Amino acid sequence: MGAELFKTLRGQHGDNFENFVFQKVVPVVGDVAGGHNLGIDKESTREHLWNILDAIVNNAASTMFDDRYDISLNVNTRGAENIVEFAKRCRKLQILLHVSTAYVVGRGSGRIKESPLKIGESMTAGNELEDENGPPLSLDIEAEFGLLENTLDKLHMDSSATGTTSTKSLQDKEAIKHLKVLGLERARRFGWPNTYSFTKAMGEMVVENRRENLPVVILRPTIIESTLAEPFPGWMEGTRTMDTFIVGYGKGRISFFLGDPELFLDVIPADMVVNQMMVAMATHGSYGYGSYGHTW
Question: How many CB atoms lie within 10 A of CB 65?
Answer without folding.
Answer: 16
